[in-house]
Input
Amino acid sequence: MSWRVPKFPCDAKIYRIYWDEFPEEVGYVGHTRQKLLSRRMPSHRDCAKNGRTSLVYQKIRERGDFQYELLESIFCQDFDEARRHEKRWSRRLKANLNMISPLLTKEERKEYEKEYECRPEVKARKKKYQQTEKYKTQRRDYLNKPETREHTQTQQAKYWVEYKTRPGVQKKSKENITCDCGSTVRLLNISHHKKTKKHQNFIASQK
Output
């Protein structure tokens, strides 16, 4: 199920993720535009299941499900204002699982995440985790969710619509060629044709 997320200006909810069994840790501080915090938490769980390497997701995988609480609900004009309030709470509580400063711009945040994911130690840790049965089971369960399959199908349909309108693809879709095996096929389908039984038999006969 999906919910419509309000656009700024709107109320931003500053929240904390934590574990009761680890009272010495503050946890993670974030913000959301969702009307209910319960609607924000599934995405955190999904990121953990999918192998995201941020500290908070590592802890979710290690410890299991978490508790969360609302710290403040405050009206914000834009994303940057919401991030400033998130930063204020993060500093006040000394949140130990926040890796990226909330005051980074969107471009800076993307660049940081890209650089972080490319670190050798992060890649190695992620690869090791993806080989575990726990990850494989979680990943399989995630991919089998009706909403996941629906989203995948929608994205694939959008891709093929865009792909077929590319100038080079349009040309290939109209151009026919004669394959070495004697078949006449469209240039766009030549890769698929080479996997057919007829073409494979021709290749075998040439050996």
